[in-house]
Design brief:
- The chain has 445 residues and is α/β, with parallel strands linked by helices.
- It contains 15 helices and 14 strands.
- It has a six-stranded parallel sheet, with helices on both faces. A six-stranded mixed sheet has the order 9-10-14-11-12-13, sandwiched between helices. It has a two-stranded antiparallel sheet with strand order 7-8.
- Helix 2 packs across helix 5, helix 4 packs across helix 10 and helix 6 packs parallel to helix 7.
- The radius of gyration is 22 Å and the shape is globular.
- The two termini are 43 Å apart.
- The relative contact order is 0.10.
- GO terms for molecular function: ligase activity.
- It is an enzyme of class 6 (ligase).
- This is Lipid II isoglutaminyl synthase (glutamine-hydrolyzing) subunit MurT.
Length: 445
């Protein structure tokens, strides 16, 4: 009976995969997009256990990467490292991180009969669906990058997410390796509660402390007793070195010395991405020389500190989709000598329909330096109002340009950018895809 059920499963799986691949061919042939979600959605209707049946075939295991910020960059870096070691890796590289996107990524690497021949599957996963996919995926490694407020209309506060994560992760096999961010109090506490093997990554470079805790902080209270945490210093948002004076809870010790690893790309947040990927790679036994070479030669994922040359001018796209991420991209801009910035704010489903988060962003730092700010997007006037409120009466040298049409906004921003400077573009997620389509002439999704 068992063999019969297994045969039926394989036949149904093969049919589901064949249909999905046909859908992919049609979508790409007609240039309707990258077919990163629809094939998985259709295949799932034919075989509901698709995710489980495919992940079981991954030879060395699934690596799940979850968190609010940094998933795509961390996943791409770890994928690069493993491929340089000679492994075959499946990866949802388009950033489609819900169930259908995960299935589509695995299907891309299967034969028409549903046979998956890869050594690892690196899957970046939306933080809200982690509890739903852990059981079918049975990951070998779980990377927990950070938890910030993001799309409150969908997810709620970070504490509720971390509690759901802890509950479901604790039921996984003891050989599962969990790698949380030691500098995030919520995740540091999560790691301390788990029965599995836990490795931590984090910073130990006080010279990078912020001068003050920014407005966009989410977890400055002890996750154990609720008392205010004492911070020796913060690196970004609530990530830093902390202890609880009430119960003694404190930051977990990172496995790696952060100062021994160079920073990829721009922005301190990318140092965290580096440390997360390196910690996982070392746990998998990758040679250190290969890891360092991959880190030193790494190229950004699309829209994440991605550099382009348009009309002989340098353009840098910095995805900015929540308060913490936007504060960090503003930090990158203000630390440069470039004076032209384009901000694009959309409120579509991939962005989150609640844009009130822009009032938690420290836009004052961007406005006070002056220069030219061009704003666009579906909620262009909300963004323009936020920037106007950031001005000090009579002191601003800001040139604020409001342009509803995105193509015209990009053209205007490029026009105001001298040839020896870089135009920084700070878009939300759907806006980033639109910006790239305008600049490169092709869609990502």
């Amino acid at each position: 009976m068992g063999n019969k059920i297994q045969l039926i499963d394989r036949l149904r799986l093969g049919f589901a995969v064949s249909v999905a691949k046909s859908v992919t061919f049609i979508v790409k042939s007609l240039r309707l997009g990258a077919a990163s979600v629809l094939p998985g959605s259709i295949a799932r209707r034919i075989e509901p256990r698709l995710l489980e049946l495919l992940s079981q075939q991954v030879k060395n295991g699934v690596i799940l990467i979850a968190g609010t910020n940094g998933k795509t960059t961390t996943a791409l870096l770890l994928c690069t490292i493993l491929e340089r070691q000679g492994y075959r890796v499946a990866h949802n590289s388009t950033g489609a991180n819900l169930e259908n996107g995960l299935m589509t990524a695995l299907i891309e690497n299967t034969t028409l009969l549903g046979t998956l021949n890869v050594d690892y599957a690196i899957l970046e996963v939306d933080e809200n669906i982690v509890p739903r996919v852990l059981k079918p995926l049975q990951p070998r490694i779980i990377l927990c990058l950070n938890l910030f407020r993001d799309q409150l209309d969908r997810y709620g506060e970070v504490d509720s997410i971390s509690k759901r994560w802890t509950k479901v992760i604790s039921t996984l096999p003891l050989e599962t390796v969990v790698i949380p961010n030691a500098d995030d109090p919520t995740l540091s506490y999560l790691g301390q509660q788990l029965p599995q093997k836990v490795l931590f990554f984090g910073m130990n470079e006080p010279e990078h402390y912020l001068e003050a805790i920014p407005h966009a902080v989410d977890s400055i209270y002890c996750p154990s007793c609720g008392h205010s945490l004492d911070y020796q210093g913060v690196y970004l948002s609530h990530l830093g070195d902390f202890t609880c004076p009430q119960c003694g809870f404190s930051k977990s010790k990172p496995t790696l010395e952060s100062s021994e690893w160079s920073q990829i790309l721009v922005g301190l947040y990318n140092k965290y991405n580096t440390l997360a990927a390196v910690t996982a790679a070392k746990e998998l036994g990758v040679e250190e020389a290969i890891i360092r070479d991959a880190v030193n030669n790494f190229q950004a994922a699309f829209g994440r500190a991605e550099d382009l040359v348009i009309n002989n001018k340098r353009v840098r796209i910095l995805l900015s989709k929540n308060p913490v991420g936007t504060n960090e991209t503003i930090r990158v801009v203000t630390e440069s000598s470039d004076k032209t910035t384009l901000l694009v704010l959309n409120d579509r489903t991939p962005d989150g329909t609640d844009v009130s988060w822009i009032w938690d962003v420290d836009t004052e730092k961007l406005v006070q330096r002056g220069g030219t700010l061009v704003v666009s997007g579906d909620r262009v006037y909300d963004l323009a109002l936020r920037l106007r409120y950031s001005e000090n009466a009579g002191e601003s040298t800001l040139n604020l340009i409001v342009e509803e049409d995105l193509r015209q906004a990009i053209a205007t921003a490029l026009k105001h950018t001298p040839e020896n400077e870089t135009l920084h573009i700070l878009p939300t997620y759907s806006a980033m895809l639109e910006v790239r389509e305008v600049l490169t002439g092709r869609k990502i999704l």
